Amino acid sequence: MTRKPDLFIVGAPKSGTTSLYAYLAVHPDIYMSPVKEPLYFCPDVRSGRSGHPYAYPEEENAYLALFSEAGIAKRLGEATTRYLVSHDAARLVHEFQPDAYAVALLRNPIDMVQALHNERVSQGHETITDFAAAMAADDERARGVGLPWQTNQLGGVYRESATYAQPLQRWIDALGAERVHTIVFDDFARDTRNEFKRVLAFLGVAADFQPPAFAARNASHRQRPAVRRIVDSRPGTWLTHDVAGAVLGKNARARLALRFRQSRINRRPYERQPIPESMRSSLAAQFRPDVERLSKMLDRDLVGLWLDPANGRSG
Questions:
Q1: Which 3 state secondary structure label does DSSP give 181?
Q2: pLDDT single digits (tens) 77-122
Q3: d(CA 93, CA 180)
């Protein structure tokens, strides 16, 4: 019988989750799902369950098959950033795996929403290419109007994904504080080696292991439109999904697909424009109550780190 995963990187989006996933994937005591984000435990965030390869709960066998090659690895994990915004994921994970560990990476919410918007534009999922205009559409999208591709009100509203205190508390309530590890993105970017060591100690695996390199993954980028059109075409989908899956096996195909998506063939570096000070100040005021609550939860001044202009930009 395939073992159940017990390690969940739960978000936030654009906060280093892809890098942490990649570092953990090469640890000899850890097996990470070849599909980074199965989205299995967040049916409330997806726009619909029909056709999803890992729909909860009917596709449990397909989900567990992601871990069929884990062997004797001590920890089995996956990394779905929408688990943080989901109202259901923490409870469903605990019911599925009472011994689960969760890791949450949290980033300055202003920088996070800009990075998330850029990624959705890059993927062709966001039709409003101007960041300020997309943020202005949040209220309308909260009513279900003009949502990005394959999202609903919970997953498609930017401010929902940038609110951390209550979502983090859901995971603490479900798993227990001792099984939830929080990383501030600023620390992860500044001293990746030490933060990675702390994660390994939290998971109870060899903490002296280091990956070949601590290079950042999934940095700001834009997909190459011509490549995306080819891959998303009917022949491209047949070749990359059906044929590759039959020849390589589903898990190997998923690993190859992830490497391709992150390659220079598929994407080019993209430098986001600075957020105008007036907009940054407005967003800081909107996020301040949540950051204040989070600061108390983590016993750390994140208001000063993230929202106070005198401290400079945190990422």
A1: strand
A2: 999 999 999 999 999 999 999 999 999 999 999 999 999 999 999 8
A3: 13
Sort 235 into a burial class: Cβ within 10 Å, 0-12 / 13-18 / 19+: exposed
Token digits of residue 290 = 């949540």
User: Is 228 within 8 Å of 220 (Cβ atoms)?
Assistant: no
Q: For the packed helices 192-203 and 17-25, what is the interaxial angle rounded to 10 degrees?
A: 60
Question: Per DSSP, what are the bridge partners of residue 32?
Answer: 77
Q: CA-to-CA distance for 70 and 75, rounded, in angstroms?
A: 9
Cα 4 from chain centroid? 20
* Distance in angstroms (rounded) separating the CA atoms of residues 250 and 61: 13
Long-range contacts of 224-229 (CB under 8 A, 24+ apart): 224/265, 224/266, 224/267, 224/268, 227/265, 227/266, 228/124, 228/266
Tokens of 93: 């994970």
Measure the CA angle with vertex 25, ends 69 and 72; round to 5°. 40
Beta strands 30-32 and 221-223, pairing class: unpaired
* pLDDT digits 0-9 by tens, 55-89: 999 999 999 999 999 999 999 999 999 999 999 99
Q: Read out DSSP for 11-47?
A: E-TTSSHHHHHHHHHT-TTEEE-SSS---TT-TTTBS
